[in-house]
Specification:
177 residues, two-stranded antiparallel ribbon, 7 strands, 37% helix
């Protein structure tokens, strides 16, 4: 699934066409209202339509159009899917993109994913890898803490076993505690 602009050329058969021009070929009955998934304020319903662009060995390239209910603005996606893929499955795939964007936005805010000026690909790759690993660690710690709160257990520091303090044990043996 790839979001494209309305003036991007896509191949339809042997011709290049623009999605902004192709959307005028969609009949009013072809638009279907489906939810792109749950958002922060509930379901995100849009009007969706699709047009087949090309076929190749059991797969097809489709142009998926999403029209806003209030403003009527249309967004376009080029997707590669099975010939018999349903519109609902394509909409679900397009809606899953928001979860990934929210995760990247969270990583930018929480662990500084966007706070690095890379001069080389290796440095950028290492910084992004470290930030994303830290973000996964924090997300797992948050999920574990939430799970412990739901079970009524006091939250522990990531559920790790307590380490024995050797100095405290020494002082207790010598009764200096």
């Amino acid at each position: 699934m790839l979001a494209v602009a309305s003036n991007t050329h896509v191949w339809r058969g042997f011709y290049q066409v623009k999605p902004g021009e192709m959307v005028h070929e969609v009949s009013p009955e072809a638009w279907v209202r489906l939810s792109a998934g749950a958002g922060t304020k509930g379901p995100r319903p849009y009007d969706w339509a699709r047009m087949r662009l090309n076929r190749h060995l059991g797969l097809s390239r489709w142009l998926l159009s999403r029209r806003g209910r209030t403003d009527g603005k249309v967004a376009f996606y080029v997707t590669h899917a099975r010939r018999n893929a349903s519109l609902k499955s394509m909409v679900r795939a397009a809606g899953s993109r928001w979860a990934a964007e929210e995760d990247f936005e969270s990583a930018k805010n929480e662990v500084g994913l966007a706070d690095y000026e890379a001069r080389t690909w290796t440095a950028r790759h290492r910084h992004m890898t470290l930030c994303l690993v830290a973000h996964v660690f924090l997300a797992a710690a948050r999920a574990l803490a939430n799970l412990q709160l739901q079970e009524g257990l006091p939250p522990k520091a990531l559920g790790l076993p307590r380490r024995r303090n050797p100095m405290r044990a020494f002082l207790a043996r010598r009764r200096l505690h």
